[in-house]
Write a structure and sequence with these properties.
Layout (H helix, E strand, L loop, with lengths): L1 H14 L16 H8 L5 E6 L3 H9 L3 H12 L8 E6 L5 H7 L1
Parallel strand pairs: 1-2
Length: 104
């Protein structure tokens, strides 16, 4: 039941043309990342950054805008940010304060 409920809410969020960044909160090891990875199949491209990895965290310390980060990541992962729908998932975002500030 929980899985279907959260998945449906993610679909509603994605269909909102005026959506804002979405924050999933919950206890550790309950499946947040798993449900997002499953949900990513609804998109043309999926970018998963984990800010516990130094290379991913460095993106936020060396960049000043989300668009700049998207350009670097799209180049690194060979993804065209001009085509299709992209889901950007930033895991462990709380470890990098600048990342949270950039999304506001």
């Amino acid at each position: 039941m929980f899985y279907r409920n959260i998945y449906q809410r993610l679909k509603e969020w994605a269909s909102n043309p005026h959506r804002k960044p979405l924050i999933l909160r919950g206890a550790r090891q309950v499946g947040k990342t798993t449900v997002v990875e499953e949900f990513s199949r609804e998109f043309d491209n999926y970018i998963h950054l984990n800010l516990e990895r130094p290379g991913d965290a460095r993106l936020f310390t060396e960049s000043d805008t989300v668009s700049e980060i998207m350009q670097v990541v799209s180049f690194r992962q060979n993804i065209s940010i001009e085509k299709g729908r992209i889901l950007l998932f930033i895991d462990e975002i709380q470890t990098e304060p600048k990342a949270v500030a950039l999304l506001r």
